Protein 1
Amino acid sequence: MSSTVNQINDLTQQEYKWGFITSIDEDRLPPGLNEEIVRAISLKKGEPEFMMEWRLKAYRYWAQLEQKQAEPKWANVKYPPIDYQALSYYSAPKQKKELKSLEEVDPEILDTYAKLGIPLHEQKLLAGVAVDAVFDSVSVATTFKAKLAEAGVIFCSFSEAVKNHPELVKKYLGSVVPVTDNFFAALNSAVFSDGSFVYVPKGVRCPMELSTYFRINAQNTGQFERTLIIADEGASVSYLEGCTAPIRDENQLHAAVVELIAHDNATIKYSTVQNWYPGDKEGKGGIYNFVTKRGKALGKNSKISWTQVETGSAITWKYPSCILQGDNSIGEFYSVALTNNYQQADTGTKMIHIGKNTKSTVVSKGISAGHGQNTYRGMVKILKGATGARNYTQCDSLLIGDKCGAHTFPYIEVKNASARMEHEASTSKIGEDQIFYLQQRGISKEEAVSMIINGFCKAVFKELPMEFAVEAQKLLSISLEGSVG
Amino acid sequence: MSLLEIKNLHASVNGNEILKGIDLTVNPGEVHSIMGPNGSGKSTLAQVLARRESYEVTAGSIMFDGKDLLEMKPEDAACEGLFMAFQYPVEIPGISNAYFLRAALNAVLKYRGQDEMDAIDFLPLLKEKMRLLEMDERFLNRPVNEGFSGGEKKRNEIVQMAVLEPKLAVLDETDSGLDIDALKIVAKGVNAMRNKNRAMVLVTHYQRLLDYIVPDFVHVLVNGRIVKSGGPELALELEEKGYSWTEAEPAGARR
């Protein structure tokens, strides 16, 4: 008995060994960005030489873009200029003030947790309440660790990967999103603090969704996050990032980079639920989420599938894309993006068909409410060698109220005459007659709206891991609360 | 006690007065037919009963089962037992018929403080009602009304009515757009639901429906007023003489 208690104590009092918390000194570098800062970041993290060189290369590219003020301006979003020299690029994740009980947590947040149906112990973790013994999460983490190790899957923080698997990092880092890819990707490459790393070896199906773990650790995601996932030949993995619970962060600018590599016959499924602080009802505050996500379906018969539910952030700039290089490779993008109040989203995908008989599917559902502005921006490119390529794109917008906007910019570029392209698009207003119809059957107005929205998003939700599909539905209802008069 | 009591009802849409003083009493078990030419206010009356917001009641009162209907939200009226079969049933993409109807039934049960039904108990009930309306089981999982033909939509309305078992059913032009075979099926479904506790108001332009659903009372609505009331024979007279006959002598009918 007492040994069990001791074990629990040991488990709960130790640092997460297998986790995303890396020990970083509490200090903070002065604001601004220059080569010295980049070097200092790399030194502080104890990185090998190649990493520092790589960061510096990224920094130099970014610096000349910044000189020319060449931050991308083509997106359909508006925000005041960012003073990049006023930001601080290295600060240890602040230890959140530990609260003694849930009673000290903002009731509004607790209310949201309850509506999402998040279990009590996870609520405590999310809110940063001191927990005596987190039986569930500890056991989950331990079970996870054992199972993954048995299968040979590497799943660790990026910093750990740099230390323990430098050959893999060196080989794959920047192979999908090069440091010169774009302004924000270059910035991320120069200064990223941490992130996660997954390697699934040949022929291994990752024995579980890499999701539950992530959910309870989501509070550790940083301002400049870097994710690298490699599925070797015949491997498969499903990864879920993010969290339906509202996430607040004092850093306004977030610029993450995610790279996926799928070798022959490998499959990577990447799901995102993004609920960063969207700002208040008047549009003050909120996160700028400028993300570069790209997967390379490198091998033949490989498959990369993106699913995203984007409800948070003041500004979203995000185009999870697929480079379909291997013959018969498949790329998918399923997206729900919701903008309410003064949120702006410019999101979509790029499908680059290079290999023969490559196939892509794009399903985008945009919902605009309040003064929200929602833009779908997508590109499907069929290169010369991509004989027999096929694409299906469906792009639907739903408007709630008359002060919001929906915009669609689909680009199609075909250089091989054998390609088959389908594009469907629709824009509709949530109908007063639909709401009334449901009300006349006894369903309340709020439930009616939520039912109509969920029906609209069904094709995307069914791609999400089961438990998240349920939460995502609830999340949409919560995000839209009060938007229908 | 009467189930529905409408007194001096005036209603407007976008500031235009459509209903100009309606009086109508419906008792449990009765079937009333409201007939009238296009634009007479028939559908407005149906929408007002279903509590549609865009229809503003400017004067008068409606009591439903002893309660003030005008105080109720649409969903509360529905939960109190008022059902409207829509003239143009609405499509709800992505939501299956079965899911929608169970959500509706459970909303009603919850309102009444009764136990909600799980999918396992609900499915046989729904299938039984669908058989009554000769609807194929594949409609269970199809999105509500999406891609349904006109006749299928109307039959689907009656399936919903059969599941929700209202005290008062308002059928708004349920016969429009139906061929004769579909009309017979719908009528069979409606007639099967007639009993001493349930009342119905049939809003229709044509007498045709009343060959299959024989009403107890017929009211003729012209220009926002009931100008004539009678038994089922009145419908036949209208069919023969047309609505202009009633319009010619409204003064006499009113006084």
Protein 2
Amino acid sequence: MQIIVSVLKKELICQLRDKRTLVSMLISILAIPLILFLTFKVQSNFINKENNKQLKVAFVGETPSFLEDKFKSKQFKIQSNLSLVEGLDALHKDSLDAIIETNAKFESVVDAQQTGTINVYHKSESFVTLQKITAQIDALKSQIVSQRLSKLAIDEQLITPIVINPIDLTSNQEKFGKALGGFLPYIFVLTCLLGCLYPSIELITGEKEKGTVETILTTPASRFHILFGKILCIALMGLTLAILSVSGILMGVKFINDIPKEISETLHQILSLKFLIMLFVMLVPLSLFFGSLLTALVVRAKTFKEAQSITTPVNLVVVFPVAMALLPGVELNWNTAFIPILNLSLATKEIIAGTIELPYYFAIVFSLILLALATLYYSYKQYTKESMVL
Amino acid sequence: MIDVKNVTKKYTLTKKQQKELQTNTQSVFAVNNVSFTCTPGKVFSLLGPNGAGKTTLLRMVATILKPTEGTILVNNKSTITNATEVQKSIGFLTGSTNLYDKLTPQETVTYFGKLHGISKSGIQQRTQLLFDQLNIHEFSTKRISQLSTGMKQKVSIARSMIHDPDVVIFDEPTSGLDVITANSIIELIKQCKAAGKTIIFSSHIMSEVDLLCDELAIINHGKIIYNDAMDNFRMQLNGQSLTEAFIDIVKNNTLAHQEI
């Protein structure tokens, strides 16, 4: 035990004196809140800008006054006396937002209680233009329908036999939980892996490259104790980075004002102490698994560069089960509970949504521990091979 | 005492290695049926050209590698069946300093003391003694990365000697060092000899061998081709220098090896 602690302590000192490690830690704390801040800031600015924008609209054809009147508000600026060709040219040049075209018989068709057609020329790149114009026309449509029914002395209820009143019982926690639960594992699984990656190369391949491995192998310390001390350090770095990234999200939620209140309040509920403890319990064996797996791989490399190329596919392999958790229909059950990383991703979704079933959770933690121990044993077998260590 | 009996180290070549070496041979002998004995209070010198098998042999004595065949006994303990006991009595020093750049000399020596299972007070006493002998105190709290090669080699010596080993293996300890630092290592070997330790010393520098050596073995193509007392070797020189005699022995053996 004393040897393991000595190795762990020494490796941690070396890691914490490494500028690259410190920078990656700092990035992990700051990157997520910064990304969240920028995303919400840019998004809210864009939405505000679009909503407050005065739309330039041109009427083409013989436009009835009742239609044009609907657009006489601050929201719209009517451009008059434009032909369709001139209007289309202006639309392409972005000096106009929409053209509303009615044919010559539009007013008489509507008066004759038939259906008139309005063509709305617009560019779909702006998501509010058509929405705003349609809203005005819909208001006019309702007005005309009311008038027609009134002329015929028909009660509006006659043509509205049923009104659907959807009552959504999904809590905000469940709604955002499914979305956030899919996104969150991307953050902590990948930061955990990245947190383990550099130290594993430095502690295992780096020792081979610098020749220091020879000096520790001549000591009476057992190879397992040396290896376990190293893997603990690697896992601790990965775990720390994963925790820092989750802390980054917490900080982001707490300090960014641009997050909609509804989302912000729900996020506060989700990121509770219970959630953090349940996540931490899963992250411990996960980081040990990553540490052991990467050790077993990089022990084959003789140089830093070789180790980097050996570990590159691991990123892809790890992303795959995380992404699978986002697919519709992929749910936590007794099969998926034993698929590494996918089980953790699905469990995170369920924990956040508040719908996790404890037997599944314990099965996942147990399977992750078993996986970590099996990988640790495998890495020990690799580490004791002469050809691998020297 | 070190007793090496019929030791062989065979490596199986992978297809990639066969291609690199341009050979169809399935395996190579890094060390082939080697036997010798090193006695306490004497310096046993191992000479040989690059790739002769010196480092492999020394690594086997130091328990880093396991022999494919044969036995190595260090103080009557086998390096295979009793490796931990052997490791307690062995110090291993190479030419490349092999230190952790981000640690200080103090931290390095303490770390190795702990790996050797020495108590805290024991580490403190030994560190004090070694740092006094090697003049390490003035830079003991600086990071290794900030030290000169000479300073690093001193730290490397302190690290290898922290557990006061009975057997010390020096694998080309002065290669790449300036004259002053190299001399401090020569002095250390002399001190070890005077203290009755068993010493194996491999080197390319014949003047060092001449100065220190009691027993001499020359290894080429994994085999010991000469093994005798240094005094006997000197008597057989016939006006040749040590270097000339060494080159002659190796050349003749290489020619014979090629003919086979």
